[in-house]
Amino acid sequence: MNKLAENLKANKLKVTPQRLAIYSYLANTNEHPTVETIYNSLKDDYPAMSLATVYKTVASLRDSHLIKEFNLGEDSNRYDAHMENHCHLLCTKCHRVFDYYGDIDLKHVMYELKSTFGFDTESFDMNFYGICEECSREQS
User: Fold this and answer.
1) Which of 46, 81, 128, 129 has the CB geometry, 3.0–4.6 Å to 26, for a possible disulfide?
2) Cα of 138 vs its chain's centroid, Å
3) What pLDDT does 16 receive?
4) What is the reported pTM?
5) Do 53 and 26 share a structural domain?
6) Which pLDDT value is given to residue 123?
7) Are residues 6 and 70 in the same domain?
8) What percent of the chain has pLDDT over 90?
9) Distance from C-alpha of 140 to C-alpha of 127, rounded to nearest angstrom
10) Residues 71 and 28 reside in one and the same domain
11) What's the domain count of the chain?
C-alpha cells in the first residue's frame, strides 16, 4: 500500500479511488489549487466524481490534518498537502502562490505569545503579498 493510502487509513479515512486521487493530486502539486481546480483536473479521469465530493474530501483531509486550507483574500480557499511549516508568497498581479521553506526565526514571537497569553504555538501560517519575478519583468 502506498504512503498516501496509509496516511488515510491512519487517520481513519476510508481509502476510496476518488479520495486517493484528490489527496495524491494535492501531494504532487506546488500549485495550491482551489476545489474547483482540483475538480476540473480530475473529472476526466473520474467522471462519477462530483464537485460536492471534492468539497467533502478536502474538508475531511483538512480535519484530519493531512492538508492545509488557507485563504489569501480571494474568493476561494486553497489547499496544500505539504505540511512542513512554510510561508506562502502570493503575487498580487498573477495570483500564483509560491512556497518559502527558508528560516524565519519566530522563537521570540512564540516566547511572547507564551508569556503574555499562555499560548503554546503548534504551527503558524504566514503569507507575504507582492509581485513575483516574472510579473516584475513584464512591468519593466
Assistant:
1) 81
2) 28
3) 92
4) 0.81
5) yes
6) 75
7) yes
8) 66
9) 25
10) yes
11) 2
β-strand pairing of 78-80 with 68-70: antiparallel
C-alpha cell at 68: 492545509
Please tell me the predicted confidence (pLDDT) of residue 25: 97
Between helix 51-63 and helix 35-42 the angle, nearest 10°, is: 120
The answer on 111 and 78 residing in a single domain is: no
Query: Which residue range forms the structural domain that includes residue 112?
Result: 84-140
Rounded CA-CA distance 127/68 in Å is 13
Residue 110 binned pLDDT confidence (cut-offs 50, 70, 90): confident
- Give me 61's grid cell: 483531509
Is the pLDDT confidence value at 1 over 70?
A: no
Give the per-residue pLDDT at 72: 78
Are residues 1 and 69 located together in one domain of the fold?
A: yes
Which CATH number goes with the domain that contains 41? 1.10.10.10
Considering the domain architecture, whether residues 47 and 16 belong to the same structural domain is answered as: yes
Burial (0-12, 13-18, 19+ Cβ within 10 Å), 26: buried
Q: Which of 136, 46, 51, 48 is nearest to 94 (CA)?
A: 136
Q: Rounded to an integer, what distance in angstroms lies between the CA atom of residue 79 and that of residue 69? A: 5
User: Are 76 and 90 in a shared domain?
Assistant: no
